[in-house]
Amino acid sequence: RKPDFFSVDMPAFRIEREDGLLREHKNGPLEDGGVYVGGNAPLVEESLGLRGEEILYVGDHLFVDVNVSKQVLRWRTALVVRELEREIEAFQSFADKQARLSELMQQKEQLEAQFSAKRLQRQRLREDYGGPDGRDAETLDQEMSALRSRLTDLDEDIAPLAKASSRLVNDNWGPLMRTGKDRSLFARQVERYADVYTGRVSNFLHHTPFTYLRSHRGSLPHDEAAERNPQYESLTSGYEWDETTASERG
Fold it and tell me: Is residue 125 part of a domain?
């Protein structure tokens, strides 16, 4: 039983016959080829001859499986998220609409920037500061009205796509791993507690026990700006991490 499996010295029982006859395991490690029920984490470590991060524990409960095993024993943890495959399929089928939604949102950002600039010009003209720019208040009002109309039209195109995006996978809750453009609370908890996560245990059959699982490069809010304008990448490119220097600095 979990979480007692990780912290309580619970007995292990060997299944002796097909009818389910059990015999309690007394002392020492578990025998090779035996089938057992019950037991405890220290007994597993003793039987395998492994400890801590040498063991990958696979479970489907974020707290009972992943959080407890990591905190108590420092085992590596893999979380099985059964809804993941369905969510990936939903995002793949929505890819074209998502691209259109992103394009419309980018247009909206540009129009909002233009509207804000004209609003500032209008304020400067009304309150007489910042110097004249050759435009009168009436012209600015007309331009702002035109931009406002274009924004309204854009919102009408954006609304159904945004609504459809929020209802992917589940009409009430939406995607499991995302909330709008951000990670969901569940996704953040998975990142915090699980070393890896997958849709099903059988996915590990594609790898050997010696595979080193690496995470993808994480994203930051300014990454999108760098993708739009490569000149921003020069701010962070060309730097290399000197481990010797870092260790000397503490």
Answer: yes
